[in-house]
Fold this sequence. Notes:
Layout: H1 6-13, E1 22-26, H2 31-44, E2 49-52, E3 64-66, E4 69-70, H3 73-89, H4 96-111, E5 115-119, E6 137-142, H5 150-153, H6 157-165, E7 173-176, H7 182-194, E8 198-201, E9 205-207, H8 212-215, E10 234-240, E11 245-251, H9 257-274, H10 291-300, E12 308-313, E13 320-325, H11 331-344, E14 351-354, H12 364-368, E15 377-380, H13 397-408, E16 413-416, H14 437-448, E17 453-457, H15 460-472
Parallel strand pairs: 1-5, 1-6, 2-5, 6-7, 7-8, 13-17, 14-15, 14-17, 15-16
Antiparallel strand pairs: 2-3, 3-4, 9-10, 10-11, 12-13
Helix pairs in contact: 2-9, 2-10, 3-4, 6-7
Amino acid sequence: MELGLERMSRLMAGLPVYARPTIHVAGTNGKGSTTAILSSIFVTSNITSGRFNSPHLVSEWDCISLNGAPISETFYLEARDKVERVNTDLAIGATNFEILTATAMQIFEHVRVDVAIFEVGMGGRLDATNALPDDCIILSAITAIELDHQAWLGHTREEIAREKAGIARNKKVCVVADSITGSVKQAIKEVLEAAKADLFPASPCDKRPWDDHVDGSRPPPFSYQPRFVPPPPQPVQVTLPQAQMSIKALLSMQGDHQRENLATALSIVTALLSHASTTTYRTTIANRIIQASIVSGIKSARLHGRLHWLHMTCPPLSPTLTVLVDGAHNRAGCAALGTYLDSLRLSERRCFVLGVSEQKGKDPRDTLAPLLRRGDNVAVVPFSPVDGMPWVHPVSPYEVTRAVREAIGEEGSLFCANAGGQDAAAWDEVKPGEYPRRQLQAALQWIAERSKVAIVTGSLYLAADFYRILKDNKQDRLTTTSTLSKTA
């Protein structure tokens, strides 16, 4: 992995000028959800928008969306071909992520979106997305800061925060998540002051009781037996004094942590509506956003791989299985997932399908500690090689099963979907162009024989393999919950 802006700047100099009004979002956790909520609000406000998220999920092009829907493969390949020709002709040697970022820029410029939303790949200061021209940036935002990617970004939250705050631009506003406090917020403040950027603290988002007059009839509670009923949306309230609004809405995204992501997204909207630096965009963007479109956008916001519930059959024996898919991949993400599971009060032993990404200096025991507990059932699996990311690998069977066994104790059950067994130093080889379908299906079948609920987690790359299985089994539409996203 090579961070830096020199190649990206050369690449952009050889391409048509990018000039779309852009919102730039960094952070450790919550970037994808925050941008998905923001995009949904733009859609319901009739604002043409583009969104770039990373990593991609199932296919490389699904990280680029227009008006909440992923672009087509054909559109993507046509745009990427132009970027690759410039990369070749100028002998730039751009990385795959840099080419992907430039492709998104070219697509958004070609469509002439009213606003583009770019999620940082990693860090911020030296990320390819930070080559976005200053004149294009409407505002920046920073979501929750946690320990992750320490080998590249620093070993403390303060160091990581400084790297992420590096996306702030001169005389522009930067929204900072409500959870960022103390020395971490101070570190961000120092970077913003040096950049002459204005810190805009996000408003808190509160949970509230269900109100039949505001929310309509209360839906039935969550259930997975005798039939599956998805969890109801969260009634929330956010006061936005600068925009002179008090928003009462239903947040379909599950989990307490999504309230903070909603608060950040709404604070971005508030900055658009009220901050002096965004006046230029009032007519084309901000003035189309009204309270009703915000409420509608919040309710319709979705994102694959983030506490996504669905109901499926599980070949070859075809028992039905309720599945929760969540891409928690660091300690904070696992803690958030653990908190959510505790709130459900599941009546049976918890069963996980787990795949963990290898990262220098990252111990799977530390990552999984807030999630796993004694007596859990855990199936350990690999995930596919990731397009354009040859450095991404699953943690070895030996290392991950050791971490799992330590957490679940002898009371729990452990299944390792590997011909070499749990003591192997490497996973079974997967042929190019394939993915570990057999291992993942075996793990799901193992759980289906023990439980009615499976929790697929540990990596978004594993979540992607799960969605591939659904697609292969023609079950990609077989879901009884509205939490299935339209925006991969």
